[in-house]
């Protein structure tokens, strides 16, 4: 007869009471013997001592018990910590009858955290192990570890219970170790280039710096509506006005938009701004930074993503937006100066544009649908319509186009950059134009930020700015095809009461 989950819960709760009755604290505040080695350190120390014929290696270990085998008066178990797992070898005549029979055999369960003190040995089967002299229970697990977590077909359960996913899948933990090393390498590059890391407000009275719908909140004492930031841009550029020449921020942005394989409402962004640089300088920095990150993570600029090799070594391909759309969508949008003309031309070629889109958004849809999937190797797409780039400087001699690029890798848009607009009069005119060009509910409608315009009026040096999604970079370097695999706790719909996450 199969034991139900409720019965298992009752059994473990009964063990907690039995432990307390025996004078054993199931959740002690500290280790009796402070940990001296991780599992990996203990194995390495023994291997070295064994080769040198040195004195026995004494260790104090701690971790989660993953397996246990009882063989009469001898038992074996595997304990795992953050560095890996190690076998422990338990003899009844060494640890004592009470510890062996009551604790190790009867009251411990898989998933419990324990501490083990003893000497390192090699068993008859050749496995490096710790021969236990003492065993201490550190934390009793009331929920059993899943038996076949790898076999779950509904990955949503893994996302909802990430703590269990991390517990039993070492490769998942490695993803987040790699992500942390990636962010460290980004900081290493920027710090080495003289950039200063700063922090700007998350709660903002006016949102801006990107085309996105914000989350809205309210400050009770100030009696003021505030927005969770959608970008750091306008605050970082205020710092250039104040005399800081190279600044960057890595932090959370929030956009009240759809969820997809590459979108999460809360995500991590990197932005930097550099005085006296333009978008050409920024392109060179992006190439150098990602090549540096790749070398730090893999020792090479060549990475593998979804079975395809991608070379991040500079220089990357550079192609104008116009040429890219001609190549991949067979349409030259410069020949169609109005939204209606462009939409008609798109339909004539088999495209299906939205009737409500303006010309800039139509061009952007051609990029997303026809160009982006084809840019597997790193590429910069440059020169964008002014309608979708209100913060970028116009190209000399072409008032309809701005000095902007987006970069693409593995068929994904990864980031965005401008030669930043630093003319306060032009910026005001752009913001007011955007109010007319887009409807009140359109996410492209950029609000007029009077304080930002005031800051610009004090004089902003020419500069280049850049923004990229850290989560998408993590997808690339961790070889994951969904953003949920590189977020510890991705946003998921709420479950109805009683509904299973597998439902």
Structural summary, described in words:
With 503 residues, the chain is an alpha+beta fold. The chain has two domains: 5-139, Nucleic acid-binding proteins (OB fold (Dihydrolipoamide Acetyltransferase, E2P), Beta Barrel); 167-316 and 377-486, 2-Layer Sandwich (BirA Bifunctional Protein, domain 2). It has 15 helices and 19 strands. It has helices at 5-21, 39-52, 92-95, 97-107, 155-160, 162-168, 170-192, 233-241, 279-298, 321-329, 339-348, 359-371, 424-437, 450-457, 470-478, and strands spanning 58-71, 74-81, 84-91, 113-122, 128-139, 196-197, 203-204, 216-219, 224-228, 246-254, 266-275, 302-305, 308-311, 317-320, 379-385, 394-395, 398-409, 412-419, 463-469. Strands 6, 10, 11, 14, 15, 16, 17, 18 and 19 form a nine-stranded mixed β-sheet that branches. It has a five-stranded mixed barrel with strand order 1-2-3-5-4. Strands 7-9-8 form a three-stranded antiparallel β-sheet, with no helix packed on it. The longest helix is centred in the middle third of the chain and has 23 residues, at 170-192. The radius of gyration is 29 Å and the shape is elongated. The mean pLDDT is 92.
SSE diagram, text form:
Layout: H1 5-21, H2 39-52, E1 58-71, E2 74-81, E3 84-91, H3 92-95, H4 97-107, E4 113-122, E5 128-139, H5 155-160, H6 162-168, H7 170-192, E6 196-197, E7 203-204, E8 216-219, E9 224-228, H8 233-241, E10 246-254, E11 266-275, H9 279-298, E12 302-305, E13 308-311, E14 317-320, H10 321-329, H11 339-348, H12 359-371, E15 379-385, E16 394-395, E17 398-409, E18 412-419, H13 424-437, H14 450-457, E19 463-469, H15 470-478
Parallel strand pairs: 3-5, 6-10, 14-15
Antiparallel strand pairs: 1-2, 1-4, 2-3, 4-5, 7-9, 8-9, 10-11, 11-19, 12-13, 15-17, 16-17, 17-18, 18-19
Helix pairs in contact: 6-7, 7-9, 7-15, 10-12, 13-14
